[in-house]
UniProtKB/TrEMBL annotation:
Transmembrane segments: 22-44, 56-73, 85-102, 114-138, 219-241, 262-287, 307-327, 348-366, 386-406, 418-438
Subcellular location: Membrane
Annotated keywords: Antiport, Ion transport, Membrane, Potassium, Potassium transport, Sodium, Sodium transport, Transmembrane, Transmembrane helix, Transport
Reaction equations catalysed: K(+)(in) + H(+)(out) = K(+)(out) + H(+)(in); Na(+)(in) + H(+)(out) = Na(+)(out) + H(+)(in)
Protein name: Sodium/hydrogen exchanger
UniProt membrane topology term: Multi-pass membrane protein
Length: 536
């Protein structure tokens, strides 16, 4: 990502300076700022208020002020914000690593709730924010905004910032909350982007039942097709590496193949106008379940740290990037003739975000709790508040979609569009810094450490040792649990549908999928193969 990304930035003209010398100076300055973010993030590791994303955002803002002063108000950034740069280079490694590192048992145990929050909840938030924008902004005379623009606002501000949220929650201290907020964040981003793209393909001035049904059908098609493409890409990489034993001759090749196949899945989804976020996320899950176990031991260590490092750099780059671009003087000048109106619109949008979030978190949590059999499996009132609060932050996805809708080439001369851009930036900065800084203390207040010990896994003593993560091999695990008396399939399905689906998935996985695509315990021994040092 490092030099290659910079080279692309120079070639694509993303760097604000045109001369080679100025470009080199800009690159050096930005890399130095990235190093400063990492060092300060380390020094503030134990701080209960500030995390690395907020640190990068503050450094970006401060750098923007310095550049603004040195250029006498002409520019505040080294780079011009580009939604292409964000979606093509920065987002893929973040989302892929999220899928690659996820604790799959936790994720799929709560999959129905995650889907409920991420898909249905995002739709509820979308309609809530859109209706609020239509009813309020249409009376404020803020420019030539139509129904399509107001619906786009609903999609833009329905996208939560999963990057910042993941840095706030701890996967080991609050496994249920992390699973729900993390899973919802990924599905939410994908749903918001799919919604936004779907809105661009319809004539929203003539809305009827047929248009709504076609819109929903297109949405479901994009959702399912993107997921299938990600699974297919992951399985293809697993099959190739398993059959060819690339690691016998070069571990570099199998590591490179994993990275390129993951990135290819994302770009192929974008080429086919699907959701690259969903595609690369499920590609990461499948690769961690099959492909990762087919490579050599050294490649496993390399890929695990390489993906995490790329994700970390992209996250830091992202918040630093947003912080500097927030002070771009050009877009603020077009909205400067009505600062009071801009502040009012930002406040209204922030209020709609709060209401839209609450409109689905609490009702859907209630519905989810109706399906749970034991109190320990239910989402408590305090946990619901944390879920509601943690999802209030808005980030680069919202900014990128806003730029896509309301600007061309990074700026706009239309008054209404300029106000929407500046308002979006204001909401992102306020929600990230204020809500982000208050999330850790809120979690510590609502959920003391004594109550954070795996509330989502009470049903069995081995539930924390997921078959997808445990050191036991698939067939060994089944033998170890064969003595457990199981109720009838119908009774299992009615009483514990999640456990039943997982049980039959394990049988299907061990009988068909792993022998074909590999995975832990199903790679045949061969000199130089992934199992050379472990054996069976």
């Amino acid at each position: 990502m490092g030099l290659g990304l910079v080279a692309h930035l120079v070639r694509l003209g993303v760097l604000s300076s045109t001369s080679d010398h100025a470009s080199v100076v800009s690159i050096n300055l930005f890399v130095a700022l990235l190093c400063a973010c990492i060092v300060l993030g380390h020094l503030l590791e134990e701080n209960r208020w500030v995390n690395e994303s907020i640190t990068a955002l503050i450094i970006g803002l401060c750098t923007g002020v310095v550049i603004l002063l040195t250029t006498k108000g002409k520019s505040s950034h080294i780079l011009v914000f580009s939604e292409d740069l964000f979606f093509i280079y920065l987002l893929p490694p973040i989302i892929f690593n999220a899928g690659f590192q996820v604790k799959k048992k936790q994720f799929f145990r709560n999959f129905m709730t995650i889907t409920l929050f991420g898909a249905v909840g995002t739709m509820i938030s979308f309609f809530t924010i859109s209706l609020g924008a239509i009813s309020i902004f249409s009376r404020m005379n803020i420019g030539t905004l139509d129904v399509g623009d107001f619906l786009a606002i609903g999609a833009i501000f329905s996208a939560t910032d999963s990057v910042c949220t993941l840095q706030v929650l701890n996967q080991d201290e609050t496994p249920l909350l992390y699973s729900l907020v993390f899973g919802e964040g990924v599905v939410n981003d994908a749903t918001s982007v799919v919604l936004f793209n779907a809105l661009q393909n319809f004539d929203l001035n003539q809305i009827d039942v047929a248009v709504v049904l076609k819109f929903l059908g297109n949405f479901c098609y994009l959702f399912l097709s993107s997921t299938f493409l990600g699974v297919f890409a992951g399985l293809l990489s697993a099959y190739i590496i398993k059959k060819l034993y690339i690691g016998r001759h070069s571990t570099d090749r199998e590591v490179a193949l994993m990275m390129l196949m993951a990135y290819l899945s994302y770009m192929l989804a974008e080429l086919l106008e699907l959701s690259g976020i969903l595609t690369v996320f499920f590609c990461g899950i499948v690769m961690s379940h099959y492909t990762w176990h087919n490579v050599t031991e050294s490649s496993r260590v390399t890929t695990k740290h390489a993906f995490a490092t790329l994700s970390f750099i992209a996250e830091t780059f992202l918040f630093l990037y947003v912080g500097m671009d927030a002070l771009d003087i050009e877009k603020w000048e077009f909205a400067s003739d009505s600062p009071g109106k801009s502040i009012c619109i930002s406040s209204i949008l922030l209020g709609l975000v709060l209401v839209g979030r609450a409109a689905f978190v609490f009702p859907l949590s209630f519905l989810s709790n109706l399906t749970k059999k034991t109190p320990m499996e239910k989402i408590t009132w305090r946990q619901q508040i944390v879920i509601w609060w943690a999802g209030l932050m808005r980030g680069a996805v919202s900014i990128a979609l806003a730029y896509n809708k309301f600007t061309r080439s990074g700026h706009t001369e239309l008054h209404g569009n300029a106000i929407m851009i500046t308002s979006t930036i204001t909401v992102v900065l306020f929600s990230t810094m204020v809500f982000g800084m208050m999330t850790k203390p809120l979690i510590q207040f609502l959920l003391p450490a004594s109550s954070n010990t795996a509330p989502s896994e009470p049903s069995s003593p081995k539930s924390l040792h997921s078959p997808l993560l445990t050191s036991m091999q698939g067939s060994d695990l089944e033998n170890a649990t064969a003595s457990i008396v199981r109720p009838s399939s119908l009774r299992m399905l009615l009483s514990k549908p999640t456990h039943t689906v997982h049980y039959y998935w394990r049988k299907f996985d061990d009988a068909l999928m792993r022998p074909m695509f590999g995975g832990r315990g199903f790679v045949p021994f061969s000199p130089g193969s992934p199992t050379e040092h472990t054996g069976r």
